[in-house]
Amino acid sequence: MNKLGCDVSFWQGNMNWQAAKQAGIEFAFIKCTDGLTGKDPQFALNWQGAKAAGIQRGAYHFFRNSLDARKQAEWFVSTLASANDGWGELPMVCDVEDKGTVALTAARIMAAIGAPRLTVETAVKNYTDRVSVLTNGEPVMIYTSPAYITTYFKWPGWSLYPLWLANYVPTAPSVPSPWHPDRIKCWQFRVDVNGAFYGAASPKIDLDVGYW
Fold first, then answer.
1. Residue 12, domain CATH
2. Quick one: pLDDT at residue 127?
3. What is the mean predicted confidence (pLDDT) over 98-126?
4. By residue range, what is the domain housing residue 126?
5. 167 vs 171: CA distance, rounded Å
6. Active-site residue identified among 40, 85, 89, 97
7. 74 is catalytic
8. 208 carries an active-site annotation
């Protein structure tokens, strides 16, 4: 059954989660961390507020290609654990959209055109593996776009990971290889300019369809 959801960070300001619920929001992906030390200043309020409103939650980490992948995983898991509220009702998410380069000398010269595919893939895999170890096998969902998949994700094993696809098209998006269509679990389909209607303090909010 398809569900309407949103994804939020400090950019949405103080969310009114009861208003979000009344607007039809059934789930939310909430930014937790960024890189090695960044913590979203609204995370705790969003995490608690969404739960109080009866909205399913998943936490996400903004992955930085230029930083140590395993240490990013450790920072995310420790920050989420400090909320003392489990891992959330939905999968944890690795947000892969950073255009920087991985922390390898050979990759620095590629800064103008983005990181080499193999280094990005390896870094993301290192991150997801470390999260899995630290959480006793909890699933990690990958958030990314079709263009990013085409450029950076070639390993067939990605097809086993749940996918949250960002693609602003009017109908259900096609799913690029190596993912299979049945692995898309969430679709970010638009940035809505009626943020206040969905409980945001800012004018805009990302909307999603969940397939669960």
1. 3.20.20.80
2. 97
3. 62
4. 2-211
5. 10
6. 97
7. no
8. no
